[in-house]
Amino acid sequence: MLSSTRSSLLRHINTELRSSLPIPSLLSHFCLPPSPAYHLSFIQIQRRYRAEFAPRNVTRRKAHKGRVPIRIGGSTKGTTIVFGDYGLRVKDGVRLSSQQLTAAHWAIRRKIKSVKGSRLWMRVFPDIPVTSKGNESRMGKGKGAFEYWACRVPKDKIVFEIGGGGIRKEVAKEALRLAGDKLPVTTEFVERATKENNISLQS
Known about the structure:
Helix content: 25-40%
Organism: Paraglomus brasilianum
Number of helices: 5
Oligomer: single chain
GO cellular component, one term: mitochondrial large ribosomal subunit
Keywords: Ribonucleoprotein, Ribosomal protein
Shape: globular
Distance between the termini: 55 Å
Strand order of the largest sheet: 3-6-1-7-8
Structural class: alpha+beta
Number of strands: 8
Family: Belongs to the universal ribosomal protein uL16 family.
Strand content: 15-25%
InterPro entries: Ribosomal_uL16, Ribosomal_uL16_bact-type, Ribosomal_uL16_CS, Ribosomal_uL16_dom, Ribosomal_uL16_sf
C-alpha cells in the first residue's frame, strides 16, 4: 500500500514539478517519511524535464528533407570564431538532431561551470522538422509523423564557442572534446588567434 501511494506521489510530483511547494513538504503532506530512494527518483524526474532545443513558433509543421549545403565560390560564412575565444568546428557536412546538440551543450556546461564568468555560444539551432514512416509501409497516405528537430550543418562550420572568465585553453579543449564525442561527425578544436585568422588544432 505504501509503495503504491509513493508511486502515485511521484506521478503527482512529475506533473507539478514547477510548483512552489518543495518536495519534502509534499512528502509530509501525504504523511509519508522521505525514503532514501526519494533523491534518486527526483534526479530521474529532473533528467526527464531537461528539455531539448526546439523552436518556439513554427510556420510549417512538416518540411522537405533537403540536403546539407555545400558552399562553393570561397564562402567562409560561419567558419571563424566570432564571439568566444575557442570553438568546435565540424569537418564534414552533417545533419544534427536536437538531442545530439542538447547532449553536447550540457557536456560543455558541466565542464566550464566552475570557471566564473565563462560563457557558451551555440552557432546552430535545430529548426527543421524531421518526419518518419514505418518500414515496409505502403505508399501514399501522406507524409510521416513528426519525429525530431534537426539542423543542416555545412562543412567547416563552427558549432560551439566558449570564452570569458579567463578560461584556460586546457579546460576549453577538454570541454569541447567532450562535446565532440556527443556528435556523429569528426570535429576539431579551434582558437582565436587574431581578428582575421583562426588557428586550428586537431583534437
